[in-house]
Structure formats: structure tokens, C-alpha cells
UniProtKB/TrEMBL annotation:
Subcellular location: Mitochondrion inner membrane
Keywords associated with the record: Membrane, Mitochondrion, Mitochondrion inner membrane, Transit peptide, Transmembrane, Transmembrane helix
Name of protein: Cytochrome c oxidase subunit 7A2-like, mitochondrial
Residue stretches spanning the membrane: 63-86
GO cellular component, one term: respiratory chain complex IV
Family indicated by similarity: Belongs to the cytochrome c oxidase VIIa family.
Length: 92
């Protein structure tokens, strides 16, 4: 009968039986399905129009910037009011 191996020499069954494709097997058109936007964005962001980088894309950037500033100012005021209220002794 002899000794039996502790670890099975057979390969385990596949859990996820999907096949994988190597990059060399893919056609060139399937590897990237969109247009490269980097050169266009580089032209936009490097244009010398006097605007800071975080406002170069127009109205959405301005809206996001102003919302962020409003929330920052509101949060600062809220923290100062909470600090003021915490510093006052309670009347009993």
C-alpha cells in the first residue's frame, strides 16, 4: 500500500471559469475604447488667460469653488459660535 501524499497532486477545480485574454491577443482597437483627452486638456490648462487652474473649465468650476468657500466660511462661523457657547458658564 505504501505512503500516500498528504497534499493532492491534482490541480483544484476552477472557481471562476472565465478565460483571460492576454494584451498581445487583443486587437489594437479593443485595448482602448475612448479618445485620448490629455492633449486637449493640456492645451486648456496651459492657456495663458490669467485664470487660476482650478477655474479654467468655466461655470462648473466656479460653482464648485463658490460652494466650497461658502461651506468653509459657514463651518468656521459654526465652530466659533460653538466655541463661544462652550466658553460661557451655565446659569443654574
Amino acid at each position: 500500500q505504501g505512503l500516500k501524499p498528504i497534499v493532492s497532486t491534482e490541480s483544484p477545480a476552477l472557481i471562476f471559469g472565465t478565460t483571460t485574454k492576454l494584451a498581445s491577443d487583443l486587437p489594437a482597437t479593443d485595448s482602448f475604447l475612448g479618445k485620448n483627452k490629455v492633449p486637449d486638456l493640456q492645451k486648456l490648462f496651459q492657456k495663458a488667460d490669467g485664470l487660476p487652474v482650478h477655474l479654467k473649465r468655466g461655470v462648473p468650476d466656479k460653482l464648485l469653488y463658490r460652494t466650497t468657500m461658502a461651506l468653509t466660511i459657514g463651518g468656521t462661523i459654526y465652530c466659533l459660535v460653538a466655541l463661544y457657547m462652550a466658553s460661557l458658564p451655565r446659569n443654574q
